[in-house]
């Protein structure tokens, strides 16, 4: 038997590090102990992990991202996230799967112990020579399977890894749900801001339409100005129902995520006047540390370990099995002499599979194929995790640059709209110039909101890619054996 060693083990040759089973150095504290089947001691992924990130600027830093949503400075967003952690029904299902895996581990461990059953019987004979008294019989049977070739310990190792995988799956589910709540809240706030912008713009366009009508009545301009003003106002008004519908849909989605009926969330989101501003991140933890923080990577590794253990279990079916059995019993007529005579026996049985048409060998091949699939899934999860970080880092950098550009565009568009409006009222320019200036202003205001929303969303995706969103102190995790990062 080989005790599980989850300490870090990397190959430092070349420019990268090779991920093995010991790369993921922070095991779940699920109260598990014992030995691991030799067949699952050291699977290797064969993936070379770079020592640094291609898109990370500045010196790498280790920032606690377990509760990254608090860094956005949005109390309502934090409230939604905490409600989702406590009440989300998908998380409740994940917790049930952890409990099921824990029970399966207890069942597998029971194989190390003997099975003892008791029996009792009473009866009375009938007939000419029958005894008139009640007859009693009491006995007990015991059986114990010796773990000669790791069949039982392999099952225990597989169940232990299944429990760890279920715990990591729950953690990764929370990571995904927290990110979904944060992203949906950011999108809802952006929609609420764009709705407010549309309504505010509509007020100015009502004024422009009234001015155009006055000027037509005064004979200063043709009715073309009125028709252009009406068209502009109608186009803006048409966006309001669409934005209201989008806001309601986002609010309803959040309601489902936090485990409550629709209604209250929409009320809380209406009238939003700002977007979360994420803190600056100039660098982050090296790739190897990020992979240790990713519960999906660690869960995929545990699934590989479980399926590798099942290879040994399947192979054990081809080898001899030793079983010890015993029994003890007593029988008498009447209770008074029941234990006067006690008999029993102890037996040892060795069985060896001789022929089953290839069924056992096929089970070995099936287990090996399943483990190969798990290895490929583990490799894919590692590569996806690295891709997530690199892509999210680029998105955040791009969004920050866009915010600066959109702020400058809004300042210019606002000044142009003020000048165009005053000149039109004074009769110094035609309505087409005012129309163009106000359309540019509306577009610039919406563009800045979109850029700010993208910046906050990119921060969420980056910190989520870095493994943020789960922690042993969070209720959905702490209530399930305290998963530790």
Helix content: 55-70%
Query: SSE order, as H and E?
Result: EEHHEEHHHHHEEHHH
The main sheet orders its strands as 3-4-5-6
What's the CATH class label?
Mainly Alpha
How far the N terminus sits from the C terminus, by CA atoms, comes to 27 Å
Topology of this protein?
Layout: E1 16-20, E2 44-50, H1 75-87, H2 89-109, E3 115-123, E4 135-146, H3 151-217, H4 224-257, H5 264-269, H6 287-293, H7 295-316, E5 321-333, E6 342-351, H8 359-425, H9 431-465, H10 475-478
Antiparallel strand pairs: 1-2, 3-4, 4-5, 5-6
Summarize the structure.
With 485 residues, the protein is an alpha+beta fold. Helices cover 57% and strands 12% of the residues.
How would you characterize the overall build of this protein?
This protein has helices at residues 75-87, 89-109, 151-217, 224-257, 264-269, 287-293, 295-316, 359-425, 431-465, 475-478, and strands at residues 16-20, 44-50, 115-123, 135-146, 321-333, 342-351. It is an alpha+beta fold. A 4-stranded antiparallel β-sheet has the order 3-4-5-6, with no helix packed on it. It has a two-stranded antiparallel sheet with strand order 1-2. Helix 3 (151-217) runs antiparallel to helix 4 (224-257) and helix 7 (295-316) packs antiparallel against helix 8. Mean pLDDT is 82; it is low at 1-39 and 474-485.
Keyphrases for this structure?
485 residues, alpha+beta, Outer membrane efflux proteins (OEP), two-stranded antiparallel sheet, 6 strands, disordered N terminus, disordered C terminus
């Amino acid at each position: 038997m080989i005790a599980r060693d989850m300490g870090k083990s990397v190959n430092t040759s070349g420019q990268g590090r090779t991920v093995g089973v010991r790369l993921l150095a922070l095991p779940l504290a699920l109260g598990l102990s014992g030995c691991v089947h030799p067949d699952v001691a050291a699977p290797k992924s064969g993936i070379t992990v770079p020592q640094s990130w291609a898109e990370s600027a500045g010196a790498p830093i280790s920032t606690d991202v377990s509760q990254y949503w608090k860094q956005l400075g949005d109390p309502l967003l934090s409230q939604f996230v905490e409600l989702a952690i406590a009440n989300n029904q998908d998380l409740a299902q994940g917790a049930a799967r952890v409990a099921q895996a824990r029970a399966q581990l207890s069942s597998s461990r029971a194989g190390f112990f003997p099975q003892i059953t008791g029996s009792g019987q009473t009866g009375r004979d009938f007939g000419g020579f029958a005894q008139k008294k009640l007859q009693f019989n009491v006995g007990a049977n015991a059986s114990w399977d010796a773990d000669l070739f790791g069949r039982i310990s392999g099952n225990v190792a597989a169940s232990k890894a299944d429990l760890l995988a279920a715990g990591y799956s729950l953690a990764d589910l929370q990571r995904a749900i927290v990110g979904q709540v944060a992203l949906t809240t950011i999108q809802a706030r952006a929609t609420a801001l764009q709705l407010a912008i549309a309504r505010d713009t509509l007020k100015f366009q009502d004024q422009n339409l009234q001015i155009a009508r006055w000027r037509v009545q005064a004979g200063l301009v043709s009715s073309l100005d009125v028709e252009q003003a009406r068209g502009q106002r109608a186009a803006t008004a048409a966006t309001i129902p669409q934005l209201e519908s989008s806001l309601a849909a986002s609010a309803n989605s959040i309601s489902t995520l936090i485990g409550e009926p629709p209604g209250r969330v929409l009320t809380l989101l209406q009238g939003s006047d700002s977007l979360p501003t994420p803190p600056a991140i100039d660098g982050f933890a090296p790739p190897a540390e990020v992979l240790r923080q990713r519960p999906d990577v660690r869960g995929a590794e545990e699934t590989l370990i479980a399926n590798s253990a099942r290879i040994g279990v399947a192979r054990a079916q081809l080898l001899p099995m030793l079983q010890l059995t015993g029994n003890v019993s007593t029988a008498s007529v009447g209770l008074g002499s029941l234990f006067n005579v006690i008999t029993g026996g102890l037996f040892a049985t060795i069985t060896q599979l001789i022929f089953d048409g290839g069924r056992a060998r096929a089970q070995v091949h099936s287990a090996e194929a399943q483990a190969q699939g798990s290895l490929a899934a583990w490799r894919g999860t590692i590569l996806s995790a690295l891709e997530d970080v690199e892509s999210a880092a680029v998105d955040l950098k791009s969004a920050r640059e866009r915010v600066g550009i959109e702020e400058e565009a809004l300042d210019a568009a606002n000044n142009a709209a003020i000048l165009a409006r005053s000149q039109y009222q004074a009769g110094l320019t035609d309505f087409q110039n005012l129309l163009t200036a106000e359309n540019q202003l509306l577009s610039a205001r919406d563009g800045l909101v979109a850029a700010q929303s993208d910046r906050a969303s990119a921060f969420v995706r980056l910190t989520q890619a870095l493994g943020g969103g789960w922690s042993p102190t969070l209720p959905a995790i702490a209530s399930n054996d305290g998963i530790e990062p």
